[in-house]
Amino acid sequence: MKVVESVHEADLAAVMLDLSEREAWLVFDALKKERRAGVLAQAEDALREDLLEQLTPRQLARIVQVMAPDDVVDLLALVEPEYADRVLHSVDFELAADLRELASHGPETAGGLMTTEFVAVPQGTRIGDSIKLLKQEADENSEGVGLFVVDEEQRPIGYVTDRSLLTNSIHDVVDDVMTEAKTVAVTQDQEEVANELTHYSLQEIAVVDDAGKLVGVVSFDDAQDVLEEEASEDIFKIIGTSAKLQTRLPIHSRVLARLPLQGVTVLGGLTTAYIIEQVMRKSTGGEISTGADILRFVPIVIGLAGNVGSQASTILVRGFATGEVEPDREVSVLRSEVLVGLCIGLICGLVTFLVIGAIDKGQAPFHFSLAIGIAILAAVTWAAVLGCVVPMSCRRIGIDPAVVAGPFLVAVSDVSGTGLYLAVASLMLGH
Amino acid sequence: MKVVESVHEADLAAVMLDLSEREAWLVFDALKKERRAGVLAQAEDALREDLLEQLTPRQLARIVQVMAPDDVVDLLALVEPEYADRVLHSVDFELAADLRELASHGPETAGGLMTTEFVAVPQGTRIGDSIKLLKQEADENSEGVGLFVVDEEQRPIGYVTDRSLLTNSIHDVVDDVMTEAKTVAVTQDQEEVANELTHYSLQEIAVVDDAGKLVGVVSFDDAQDVLEEEASEDIFKIIGTSAKLQTRLPIHSRVLARLPLQGVTVLGGLTTAYIIEQVMRKSTGGEISTGADILRFVPIVIGLAGNVGSQASTILVRGFATGEVEPDREVSVLRSEVLVGLCIGLICGLVTFLVIGAIDKGQAPFHFSLAIGIAILAAVTWAAVLGCVVPMSCRRIGIDPAVVAGPFLVAVSDVSGTGLYLAVASLMLGH
Predict the structure, then answer these.
(1) A166 and B CB contact within 8 Å
(2) Chosen from B130, B145, B167 to mutate, greatest number of chain A CBs within 10 A
(3) Within an 8 Å CB–CB cutoff, is residue B162 touching chain A?
């Protein structure tokens, strides 16, 4: 366990994520209270949940006592309310009150992001006295980088960095060295708070209640987490999937997260097929050949292959950027992503088979709709393979995978997916 | 000018970006040297370029003298080499040497990101002496939040936060209160550096040369800029466009940035049309009706409409998230994005018209290829309108635009684009 003791908690949390639940617990169990707190604060939710399952409320309470209150609130949001209550009853009264207060704010607001551990001094305080106060609070607030100056109503009016305290005379008053305090409302959206912090390059921002009173502080590292999270969320929403850490989720969650987009695509494709049928009947006087009938479903194939390919490749590109997909995880990610593609292909092929068989007015004998369904399955699975292999190969040979993941991949999967679909369908229908 | 004086430089830079070149210069010209430095440091490149055009090398040198060296290097990268040389000749010798050293590193590396203004003390230094040193360097290094401890070879071995200096006895040595120093190589990619900083929640990270010597420091706010930049870059590359701040670029740059993707799509679509033609000829015995012939180009329409729609909507979603597209800019963004769509539609329609007319083996009389070209133009422009109006409406009625921008938008633009294309083509060909 000597090795484990010298590893940074952020690294430990990252490594434990790749261990089995039992192995992760064995490592965690061997750690001291402070190290456990560090790991829990840095871990992804999946690991946190595994570890929390093994801890009794009393054990967790002891760890929580040495954690930042905002991290504790995030942690308690993952457990049953009764369990959280029992933890709150086991920590000291003041902390419990802080935690209840913090937990009352929405998790995606400034209130959910802030910590209540900050140092504030009244106007006119001498720098020497401010430093004395910091020394008294050193145990509780060791990670701050400055302090706030407040008026009689506890409203923040200024901010003094630790560096200013160090480089100015202890006889000066804080008013002379403070900069204007930037504030956000406790109900403000966390993305706006993070943008405010980065816009002004601030280290800390004051959170105020309705009356303008200082109630908490959001620091730059919280903002970084939010920005990374929101950027990933936006990317994943745009390609039609949700949740972060896609490559670490179980297969069924990944399939479920990506299905809504495929539903919309299949619906859109079937509508297009209907429109095309009308145009064809008009132009040929009512008759449609099998060959032309197969063509009506090309838009579904193009849509699905494009979706599945770009979802897989985008998840990889983002995973490369955030360090989620390290080179040693490539094989397992490839295998699981292809499995996800296969499942989506199966479901969409089945749905198309059933819908064509049931309501479509084309040729629609049983083996026609079956052929279309199987051809869709083949094209979609193929797109999933392309969506993984292309960005992985790009990274290996030193081409930026993000450039290739978009345009190139969609075009290649469109053309090859359509070709594969036509080949399978024609073959099965004897053309 | 009283109002201007009280505004934060980051806000000033943001406002000036929306002014005309002349207006922006009038505001800038009225500022003091230190404020000019702040605005230049915070401004986007477009504004920087406008302002630099008006400044003589001597004027710029005076401003540069009070800026952080890493910001100066970014600035000088925007001007002609001769101009930069004249600036370097006008600043003091030490700064010029630092700037030349910094400029020698790749702009996307740790070396290009770091500042050379940091404070380092040897092992065994007392805290009191460290504070004295900070006071001496206060003018040059007012934004630091800690100092590095180095060994005899100038290799970083520890980091001491300002807070630790404040809360520990001045008689202690730094060795007792320092934490392990994290380091990155001067040649390391800036995205890796930023990930390192956020992974360990660091405020500053040491940059070392080949010999392991401390040569610079990258701080958290540099990391934030990099992460936001890289996330935007990845998103824009995935949707097939480049450059940041899409909505602020001139129309022709935006069209040019998005054209490569359309080229790939048109090429893929024409290939698909060729494959379909083969299957059709086989199934009908050589003959193709006009109605069926129009259908062969549906994949091009679906591909282009999907691209243009999702590019416009993704740029808006990202613009909403980073604050680039404020509500008061919506109308001008809508107008310019539709114009971009129109241009892309024109170019792609024209190319398809020419290619079909020249080499396609379908019916291909002049008015057939013209009809296809015009139908593509109509469908693509329509997709651009949808790609702007849908996310803007979503934001207004409180639905998350990112969710709708992806799946929903692509499906709607596929179906309505295909319908529009078929309608226009059929109408022009008299069906």
Answers:
(1) yes
(2) B167
(3) yes
Residue B258 vs residues B253, B262, B310, B345: alpha-carbon distances, Å:
9, 7, 11, 12
Q: Which long-range contacts (CB under 8 A, 24 or more apart) does A157-164 make?
A: A157/A123, A157/A181, A158/A123, A159/A204, A159/A206, A160/A130, A161/A203, A161/B145, A161/B162, A162/A134, A162/B145, A162/B161, A162/B162, A162/B163, A162/B165, A162/B166, A163/B134, A163/B138, A163/B142, A163/B143, A163/B144, A163/B145, A163/B162
Summarised one tens digit per residue, pLDDT across range B242-281 is 656 667 777 888 888 888 878 888 888 888 888 777 777 7
* Confidence class for position B158, pLDDT limits 50, 70, 90: very high
ipTM for this model: 0.70
| Closest approach of A422 to chain B, Cα-based (Å) | 8
- pLDDT tens track, chain A, 431 positions: 455 667 888 888 888 887 888 888 888 888 888 889 888 888 888 888 888 888 888 889 899 888 888 888 888 888 888 888 898 888 888 888 888 888 888 888 898 888 888 899 999 999 999 999 998 887 766 677 889 999 999 999 999 999 999 999 999 999 999 998 999 999 998 888 988 888 888 889 999 999 999 999 998 888 888 887 777 777 777 776 665 666 777 788 888 888 887 888 888 888 888 877 777 777 666 666 666 677 788 888 888 888 888 888 888 888 887 777 777 788 888 888 899 999 999 999 999 888 888 876 555 577 788 888 888 899 999 999 998 998 888 888 888 887 777 667 878 888 888 888 888 888 887 65
Tell me the nearest-neighbour CA distance from B364 into chain A, angstroms.
17
Domains A2-104 and A120-219 fall in the same CATH topology: no
| The amino acid at B108 | E
Which residues of A fall within a CB distance of 8 Å from B276? Answer: 295, 298, 418, 422
Question: Are the C-beta atoms of B37 and B63 separated by less than 8 Å?
Answer: yes
Which of A225, A279, A412 is nearest residue B426 as measured by Cβ atoms?
Answer: A279
Domain B2-104 bears CATH identifier 1.25.60.10: yes
Q: In the predicted model, what is the mean pLDDT of residues B130-135?
A: 91
CATH superfamily of B239-428: SLC41 divalent cation transporters, integral membrane domain (1.10.357.20)
Please give the Cα distance from B373 to B421 (Å, whole number): 10
Name residue, tokens 């001067």. Answer: B186
A149 forms beta bridges with A121, A158
Please, where are the H alpha helices in A207-249?
220-238
Dist CA B431 CA B427 (whole Å): 6
Range 226-255 of A in CB contact (< 8 A) with B: 227-228, 230-235, 237-240
Taking the CA of residue A86 as centre, how many other CA atoms within 13 Å lie in the half-sphere pointing to its CB?
10
Neighbouring-strand partners of residue A120: A148
The residue of chain B with its CA nearest to that of A7 is B180
Q: In chain A, which among 332-351 make CB contacts under 8 A with chain B?
A: none
* Contact check, Cβ <8 Å, A276/B422: yes
* pTM exceeding 0.80: no
Q: Residues of B with CB below 8 A from A135's CB? A: 166-167
Q: Across-strand partners of A72?
A: none
**Residue ranges of the domains in chain B?**
2-104, 120-219, 239-428
Residues of A (59-118) whose Cβ lies below 8 Å from B: none
Identify the closest residue of chain B to A429 by CA–CA distance: B283
For chain A, say whether B412 makes contact (Cβ under 8 Å).
Answer: yes
Most distant CA pair in chain B, distance: 97
User: What chain B residue is nearest to A313 in terms of C-alpha separation?
Assistant: B238
Q: Please name the CATH architecture into which domain A120-219 falls.
A: Roll (3.10)
